Amino acid sequence: MEKIRNLMQERIEDLTKIAAGEGGKPYQDSKVEVLRAINGVKIAAEEIAGLAGEQIPMGLTEASVGRIAFTTREPIGVVVSVSAFNHPVNLIIHQTITAFAAGCPVIVKPASTTPLSCKALMDIFKEAGVPDGWIQMILVDNDGAEKLVTDKHVNYLSFIGSAKVGWWLKSQLAPGTRCALEHGGAAPVIVEPDADLEEMIPGLVKGGFYHAGQVCVSVQKIFVHESIAKKVADTIAEKAKKLKVGDPLDKETEVGPLILPKEVDRVEKWVTEAEKEGAEILCGGKRISETCYAPTVLWNPDHQSKVSQEEIFGPVVCIYSYSDREEAIKLANSLEYHFQAAVFTKDLDIALDTVQKLNATAVMVNEHTAFRVDWMPFGGRDASGEGLGGIPYSMHEMTREKLMVIKSKYL
Asked: Which of 224, 245, 246 is nearest to 235 (CA)?
C-alpha cells in the first residue's frame, strides 16, 4: 500500500487529467480529488492496526469460571464494489483499498462513463505488487452487474449510485451478504438571521456548484430567514454568475459539463417546470451547450416542484424564505432522502436544537453540506442509503468478529 501511494504521488498529473477528461470535473477539483485518494491509501494502511478484537469478561458467574474469551476480526470474504462517475479516482480507492486492507479480495465495476480512471489505478496496483486477482476491475452491462452482485459467493456489496438500482440490488442479494448503499440526497441548509454571511456565502456557492452539482451532498435547498433571505439569494446569484463554466481541462474552469447530454435535458426541463410553477430565476436557467448548463439560482420554487422534491444532481440551487424555523425544519425533513444537512447561526442553543431536529446522518454547523473528510463516517439514511462509508468505517464493515472461548483448569 505504501508502494501504491508512492506511485499515485508520482502520477498526480496523469490521474488528474484522466479524471477531468472522462468525468468532466474541472482540473482544479480533480487534482484535489486525486490528492484525497492518495491520502485515503495512507488512512487505510494506518487503520489496519485498528482492526482489533477485545477480551470478553469471564468468571462473572459460576458457569463462566475457569474460562478466558476474546474476539478477533477476520476478513468478511469477497467484496463487490459498484462505483459512480462523480469521483472516479477517490471512490475507486474507497471501494477497493478498504477491502484490500481488510484482507478481502474485491471486484470493482466502475461507472460506464468513467472507466479510464479505474483502469489507471488497476495498473498502479499491479505495478505496486498487489497479488493477481485480489483487486479486479470488470466492465459489464447492467444485467451482468446484477449477476455479479447477486452471486452467492459475494460476501459484501459496496454500491454507490441511484436509490432505485441500489434498493433493487439489495433485495436480490444472496442470504447473508452484507451491503453498504450510498444514494443521493437533497442537502437542506437552514440559515438563521445571525449567520455570518461573508463567511457563509462562498461556501454555499462552492457546495452548490462544485462538479456542476453532481455530488450526493451538494447544497440544493437553502431555507433562509425572511429578514435576510432575498439578500442572501441575490448575493449567491451574483457569485454564481461569475463562475467560469466550460472545458474541465482548462485550469481556470470552475464548473464543468454534466456527465451526459441527457442530464442537461433533464435539468433544463426541471428548471423550466419550476419557473412555470412560480419560481423566479435569479441567474442561469439556460443551457450553454450540449453538455453544459449555466449555474442557476431559483427563488422560492413551489414545494411540489421537482426541484424541491427530488435530487437535482445538476448546477441548480433553490432558496426559500421562511419566518418560522420549525416550519423550515419540517420542510427540510419532508422528503424521503436524508443524508447531510447544515445550519448557519452564531447561537449555540439554536444550532444544537436544529442539529437534533434535522433528519440526517450528519449536520454541519456553519459549514456547507458537501463538507467531507475521508476518515469520518459518511452515508445516507432512509431512502438515501444504508451502512457507512468513510475509510475506517468501511474497513470494519468488511470484517466480522469471531469469538474464542478457552476453558482451562489453570484459569
From this structure: 224
Alpha carbons 241 and 67: distance in angstroms, whole number: 70
Task: Assess contact for 29 and 211: CB atoms under 8 A.
Answer: yes
- 241-295: per-residue pLDDT in tens? 999 999 999 999 999 999 999 999 999 999 999 999 999 999 999 999 999 999 9
173 with 157: CB under 8 angstroms?
Answer: yes
Q: Assign residue 129 a region: left if phi > 0, alpha if psi is -120 to 50, beta otherwise?
A: left
Rounded CA-CA distance 320/43 in Å is 39
- Furthest C-alpha separation in the chain: 81
Residue 343 contacts residue 365 (beta carbons within 8 Å)? yes
With the C-alpha atoms ordered 82, 85, 89, 91, is the resulting torsion angle positive or negative?
negative
The one-letter code for the residue type at 297 is V
Is the whole model's pTM more than 0.90, yes or no?
yes
pLDDT tens per residue across span 34-59: 999 999 999 999 999 999 999 999 99
Cα–Cα distance, 125 to 135 (Å, whole number) = 8
> DSSP characters for 355-380?
HHHS-SSEEEESS-TT---TTS-B--
Backbone dihedral region for residue 103 (phi beyond 0: left; psi -120 to 50: alpha; all else: beta): left
C-alpha count within 13 angstroms, C-beta hemisphere, residue 55:
6
Single-letter code of the amino acid located at 293: Y
CA distance 398 to 371: 25
3-state class (DSSP) for residue 405: strand
- Sign of the CA dihedral 297, 302, 307, 311? positive
How many angstroms separate the CA atoms of 220 and 311, rounded? 8
Instruction: Give the Cα separation of 26 and 120 in Å (integer).
Output: 19
| Degrees, nearest 5: CA angle 28-31-36 | 130
- Which residues have a catalytic role annotated? 182, 216
